[in-house]
Write a structure and sequence with these properties.
- The structure holds 2 protein chains of 2 kinds.
- Chain A has helices at about 10-15, 20-40, 50-65, 105-115, 155-165, 180-185, 220-230, 275-290, 305-320, 340-350, 355-365, 370-395, 420, 430-435, 460-475, and strands at about 45, 75-80, 115-120, 170-175, 190, 215, 260-265, 295, 400, 440-445, 450-455.
- Helix content of chain A is about 40%, strand content about 15%.
- Chain B is mainly alpha-helical.
- Chain B has a domain at about 5-40: Glu-tRNAGln amidotransferase C subunit, N-terminal domain (Histone, subunit A, Orthogonal Bundle).
- Chain B has helices spanning about 5-15, 20-35, 75; strands spanning about 85, 85-90.
- The longest helix of chain B is centred in the first third of the chain and has 18 residues, at about 20-35.
- Chain B starts with a helix and ends in a 6-residue tail after the last strand.
- The relative contact order of chain B is 0.08.
- The chains are: A alpha/beta, B mainly alpha.
Amino acid sequence: MDLCYLTAYELHRLLVKREVSAEEICRAYLARIEAVEDRIKAFVTVTADLALEQARAVDRKIAAGEEVPPLAGIPVAIKDNICTRGVRTTCSSKILHNFVPPYDATAVQKLKAAGTVFLGKTNMDEFAMGSSTENSGFFPTANPWDLERVPGGSSGGSAAAVAAGEAAAALGSDTGGSIRQPAALCGVVGLKPTYGAVSRYGLVAFASSLDQIGPLTRDVRDAALMLNAICGHDPLDSTSVPYNHPDYTSFLVDDVRGLRIGVPREYMGEGIEPPVKEAIARAVELLSSLGAEVEETSLPHTRYALPTYYLIAPAEASSNLARYDGVRYGYRAEDARDVVDMFMKTRSRGFGPEVKRRIMLGTYALSAGYYDAYYLKALKVRTLIKQDFDRAFEKFDVLLAPTSPSPAFKRGEKVDDPLQMYMSDICTLAVNLAGVPGISVPAGFADGLPVGLQLIGRPFGEGMLLRVAYTFEQHTDYHRRRPPL
Amino acid sequence: MISIKEVEHVALLARLELSEEEKEMYARQLGAILEYAQMLNELDTADVPPTAHVLPLQNVWREKDEVGRQLEPEEVLANAPDREGQFFKVPRIV
């Protein structure tokens, strides 16, 4: 039995039947990391001692006859922009290479309370800016399905770790697709919750009106379990919503009869590669055959999502990243004449090229004389994009689209052309602008590379998303395949 | 394309020091991205209100004003590149 490819709830079953201990599970994952990590490079930091300590604590509870929660003893990985008390949190940036947070993010605290075992912190595009994890300030991560290719991004380390059997589940963050797109490219499940469903306290801010923490998992049930564990109102995040979250596992029923599913034609047009379109068409056929009413629809402002996003997100980022100045934490340039010179040298050496590009872009869009033409204009178009979704959800329960316009691309293929790289997010950006939830599930393969199906729901409609995703999963086996490692 | 002078101005606002090559690269790349963003001008948004935030939440107040656990000064200062006593130390300001 290979523990590293079981789902969280399968591991849980073995644990409570005492067929395996949490420490054995933990050691199996640490051995797996040892075996494949030099090829995958999913982790910035591996926390073996902490993991073993947490695993033994779970074993003691089980030995004492205590009932343990469903994620107790489950080995998870945490994206390195989510603060972990006492464990280095770098955002894969040189400017935070030595930052050790004095507190836990709320999502981390909740996972600790749920008894999960922390294997380590995962690699990402620096400050979550990118779609390939090539923008990491440390090293790129490989796609487990083809080591020459990118795992997607920015949560590429989290997606690759789950796909490679280096973690049973992981946390990522999604500002414009950073959970869903790498999940699609690595053949795992990735869920971006509704804006405000999960506390952002302790998530290092990129674009505060768009950022959201969510899970990457082996299947849909695990995504529901992880969401159960991390969701909820948090007084420490005033944008977290006081909402009475249901038990998300209660939506895991194999039934889509009578559900209305809309397929926005703008997501199936130009720029979407043929094998992706074919996989989506097969998904539509399957869901129709299971009784869903699938119909073409339109989100007319879709083509404006990319320019809107690339004005709003950098504008927010330029403001959020002003705090990295070498004063209170992180890297500081030591050879400065005065304090302003220190700010300039620290930031210029500490940030990588994509982060600087976005700070420049955002500063420009917010600067005197350009604010109305760019930033304010983008906020207005954001309203139109959101209204598209509002209108669509008057008629449909769920929208269905590709997650990514193509399967995983080769490392180096798009790094020199930022616009080309930004295009990798065309299927996911609008969802963040509208604040609605989205999930990516494995929906096929193209030349051995995973293809993702994206389902988009109403605000706080995660239950409906999970139901459709679960039904799809029950009638396919793409999520069970393993990369040839 | 935006001018090198504009790039230098924005870099100063953002407290970034750029090399000559970087200035040229960003002038070119930011120009291309901003040109692409011109697409938004196809839309008449005169009567459209801006969305800064998708949530209907407004004026979120703290329910109770209570003293909670705060970080100890030592915890806060532990990451400081330089310090003196309970202060962050920086190079000369004036």
